[in-house]
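As noted in the main text, all predictions were made from sequence alone. Below is one such record, for Glycoside hydrolase.
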Amino acid sequence: MQCEQIVTFSANGKAYPETTRIPVTPEADEPRHLESGVLNLYPDITYQTIEGFGGAMTETSAYLLSQMDEQTRKSALEAFFGEQGSHVKFLRVHMDSCDYSLEEYTAVEDPIADPDFETFSLKRDQKYILPVLKEALAMSKEPISVLLSPWSPPACWKTPPERPKNDASVYGDLPGHMKKEIDYDTPSRCNGGSLKPEYYASWAKYLTIFVNAYLQEGIPVTMMSIQNESIAATDWDSCVWTAEEQKIFLRDFLYPAFEAAGLAGKVGIYIWDHNKERVLEYATDIIDSATDSMIEGLAFHWYSGDHFEAVEMAGRKYPGKVLMMSECCGLHMPGRVGFMGFGGGGKTPETVEYEDAVAYAHDIIGNLNAGMNRWIDWNLCVDKNGGPRHVPGGFTACMIVNDDYSYRTNLTYDYIGHFSKYILPGAMRIGCSRCDDKVEMTAAKNPDGSIAAVVLNKQDEDQKYAIRIQGQVIRIKAPARTLSTIVIR
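Prediction:
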């Protein structure tokens, strides 16, 4: 048995990885009975398959990458898709515009005048998203799976926004968040509103055409969520669905359209695609004997807190459903404190980026231990203001593009890599136990038989442990404020 420990230190906003070979000794040779300060690994106790990690190729990310010179873009893409990169396995792409688009747009400009969608076109996607996406696919040594997600149907099919469901009621009255005064009389792509039932069939047909168009472009679409953030009426592209409405749409319109187009069983359908605190209730309201076979999995976001127990209960109640984190990001501009850059606190950019990285590691560990199979970050990259996008403000990402279209990665990128580089697609999560709560830990057994244990120490003091595994002992130090991956071969 051989063991290496990879530790990522941070200083001045930069990550410093350090790899050390660690001796493995028989527990029988220990001078005294080993009880305290122990982390246990149980390779024979296995749980879910961990299928991989990924991010989102939004129009924002694709635009920024497309503006780089060829060598810089290649380097940036290699950071995600290259052999030494973060081993991106899954990519999320929005269907029509989202908040991370340069402007609002649809693939059919006037579906009322063109109910048969004869003018359907991916010309907007072909401008930025598809060329960069294809470049990434060609670079990757591993097969990539694409998740498509809609943010809103065309405005002409929707009801106007409802006051009780407006953005402030969901997110609070946050400074700088609202784009403009909401027009409660006119339907739009933004500020919520709901799809009118008389257009359910049209929307199902539209989504089906969209998925097939991406497949015809050679994009390996294997997943589609029914709606991004089903109950959030954001001031960007959004649409509000009740669980019952979405159930009717899925059962009576979308799935039959998928069957007719030959997509059923080829492109898995995901429900919820919103924050974890309601994933169980939403699944319970939608999944029944009729819809169960139509749904491949449950997608969820992280913006309402941990709720690892909700994820675990959903997995137990619906065994066989894929559990997928489909979006997460720090809710502030790169290196700045507060929602969309509003707020003080006196923190340095380095402190903010460290806190982001810790939040990512904590959430990934918690979700994996709760049964998560797939994990997808939000934007692959943004600019220094968290954009560009067609609404004000912006959020951070693990790659920041500078004004001259050079780029930098931050500590979050390195922390994600502790999972994505060493927990390989097809790994099985294994049993583990801790002696205290000073570190957080998850562990997995890879298809090649190697074991990766990821240990987060967010304390201000170093921690020392003895890892016990199958009669062997590995003594490690988890340095203060670091993330470590222990690889055992």
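The first strand starts at residue 3 and ends at 11. The chain has two domains: 3-46+430-488, 52-425. These features were considered when defining construct boundaries for the mutagenesis experiments described in Section 2.9.
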